[in-house]
Amino acid sequence: MTASEDEHKRLREFYSDLTDGELENIAEDSTSLTEAAREELSRELKTRDLGNLQKTKIEIDSEPGLRKLVTIKRFANLLDASLAKGLLQSSGIECFLPDENMLRVYWGISNSMGGVRLQVNIEDAEESLAILNQPTPKGSEDE
């Protein structure tokens, strides 16, 4: 078996163990997936009859030139990156953690990758940085 075949087999087994919701979450943010991962994800979605809705999203994300994304910040861990992503999304800004799926599987490689990247469309970069750089409001704590 070649390395490519081994990778496809590993991915097939990995995706088959996930719930429908977990598969759909991965498909929604498939920008960080390799071509092999996208193929196997698409195959598993079709097998579960989830392919029609999600396949379009995977194909759109893999088309070059549709988006101009820029990394606006790097985080030491996935939790901090997810909090920042949630803050931007609640402000109506589309954003991505392209390393999220890789780090969920291989969590220990974050430092060697340079941290978890938070990306936005280039036209949203300034507004996103302004939102992320706002001081954290102090809560009313009883002393």
Description:
This protein has 143 residues and is mainly α. 52% of the residues lie in helices and 10% in strands. It contains 7 helices and 3 strands. It has helices at 3-16, 20-28, 35-47, 51-62, 78-90, 100-105, 125-132; strands at 69-75, 95-96, 116-121. The chain has a 3-stranded antiparallel sheet with strand order 1-3-2, covered by helices on one side. Helix 2 packs across helix 3 and helix 3 (35-47) runs antiparallel to helix 4 (51-62). It is elongated.
Tell me the number of strands.
3
Share of residues in strands:
5-15%
Structural class: mainly alpha
**CA-based gyration radius:** 17 Å
Mean pLDDT: 77
Which segments are poorly predicted (pLDDT under 50) over 5 or more consecutive residues?
52-63
In the sheet with the most strands, the strands line up as: 1-3-2
Key features of this structure:
143 residues; mainly alpha; three-stranded antiparallel sheet; 7 helices; 52% helix
How does the SSE layout of this entry go?
Elements: H1 3-16, H2 20-28, H3 35-47, H4 51-62, E1 69-75, H5 78-90, E2 95-96, H6 100-105, E3 116-121, H7 125-132
Antiparallel strand pairs: 1-3, 2-3
Q: Could you write a compact summary of the structure shown?
A:
The chain has 143 residues and is mainly alpha-helical.
